[in-house]
Amino acid sequence: MFRSLRFRLPAFFLAAIALAFLVASLIALRLFQGHTRTENLIELRREASGLAALYSESAARATDEGKAAPAFAAAKLEAATGDRIFYVGLNVFPGEETGLNRLLRTDLPVDVRNASRILTFEFKPPGEDRDFLAASHPLRFEPDTPPFGALIVAKRKSELRDAWLTLLQQLALAFLVGIVVVGALALYLSRRITHPVLSLSAAADEIAEGRYDVEVPLVPGGGEVGHLADRFREMAARLAEAEERERNFLMSVSHELRTPLTAIRGHVAALREGVVTDPELADVSLEIVEAETERLGRLVGDVLDLAKLDAHRFTVLTEEVDMVRLCDRAYLTFTDEARRRGIDYEKRTEDEPVIVSDGDRVLQIISNLLSNAFRWTPDCGRIEVALASRNGAVTVDVADTGPGIRAEERERIFRPFWSRDGRGTGLGLPIARELAVALGGRIELETEVGKGSRFRLVLPAHRP
User: Fold this and answer.
1) Shared domain check, 276 and 154
2) Domain that holds residue 59
């Protein structure tokens, strides 16, 4: 369970959210601490400035009138501001009985004891067990006279921590609510994502066991998973097609091998047992054995050529090739079949190019194209071979009046072991195309259903 994607995905999602929230909370808390401290210091300085002005004015008026300074109700001021008020300096104001707490200079930090300007600092007043955040403002009888004391407004630092704890509690509550919402969303999304992935995994298990007719689920909305499902569906279809082609190939090759082997076996047995005594008939039998042997050799050669091409272990020669003579050789190979079937068989030559390539392989390509054309052209049809040279390339066209090729089959016919009618080995066109690519060229196809096809071999004049 803990190793499954359905668990890991929401767990990772929640962990990422929790980590992001923790980092954001720490940053927010740090910023809030700095902001709260700054705001409190500003407030303390403002209060210290206002109270110092009040006490300085009271002390100056009392001095002019020659009587003691009035006692302000410091306790009421503390209750109004929520802060503590301390005094350090000359004995101008009444003592602690009026609520104004007196401090010794030794109770203050060194840099604050004789300060002539407003300062903020931290200290621990006598009798207190907690630190205070304070602002000290000097007291003067006149604006430009030396200070006779200082008024200190202080706030417990624990009040700042209380604000921080309140913020933490609110953040924790928001975190819990967010985790619940995000967890539900993560669970929903993980099910939406993992369901097609699990279905693809189950389909992959079926394919691994050799069952290619699996139903791949449709993924709504597209995206990467939808693309994966589409490609997986295409892969399963191609595997099924490959298995079908392999089965057809085995059946076709078995048939193609059995036919000449049967003929060879029959004629050899007749010659061995003396059934054929006429020398002319014996020569005919030997010619049949030779022809069937060549047929077997071509079949085995096609299979070997395809294997070499697939393994990229195929080598080609480099020589000057007279394309007119080569096309004549390929053309003459099929003249007897054309005459026997009443096919209008023509050869047209526009140029006399000489290229640098492998002549035997070029001949094999043209022969394969012609063999395919004769196979699909009906009796009394028409086949044309045309040789031309243009733009530094040589083209050989093989056109027929066969049934044409449907759009969905134009790529399949170049796949090994695939045949439109289920007969034959399905190796001629695949080998022709692979050889053309190996020689630096290509095979182009123009076809129209019901009217025929034109295969064009394009070769460079000089093979790169």
Assistant:
1) no
2) 5-163
Q: Which helix (H) or strand (E) holds 448?
A: strand 442-448
CB within 8 Å of 214: residues ≥ 6 apart: 203, 206, 207, 236
Question: What's the token pair of residue 342?
Answer: 């009443």
| Residue 194 lies inside a defined structural domain of this protein | no
Is position 205 within any domain? Answer: no
* Residue 102 pLDDT > 70: yes
pLDDT at 217: 67
- Which residue stretches of 66-156 are H helix? 74-81, 110-113
Of 125, 148, 126, 123, nearest to 138 by C-alpha is 148
Judging by DSSP bridges, how do beta strands 149-156 and 132-139 pair with one another? antiparallel
Determine contact, residues 193/225, Cβ cutoff 8 Å: yes
For residue 451, what are its two tokens? 């009217």
Joined tokens for residue 165: 């704890």
Matching residue, tokens 């070029």: 362
Which CATH number covers residue 415?
3.30.565.10
Q: Which residues of 198-235 are buried (b: 16+ CB within 10 A; e: fewer)?
A: ebbeebeebbeeeebebebbebeeeeebeeebeebbee
Total of domains in the chain: 3
Q: Contact at 8 Å (CB) between 62 and 70? A: yes
Tell whether 18 and 156 lie within a shared domain.
yes
Q: Which residues contact 100 (CB under 8 A, 6 or more apart)?
A: 71, 72, 74, 85, 86, 87, 93, 94
Residue 400 and residue 344: Cα distance in Å, rounded? 10
If asked whether residues 94 and 20 sit together in one domain, one would say yes
> Does pTM top 0.85 for this prediction?
no
CATH of the domain at 240: 1.10.287.130
Chain segment 184-211, per-residue pLDDT in tens: 777 777 776 677 777 777 777 777 777 7
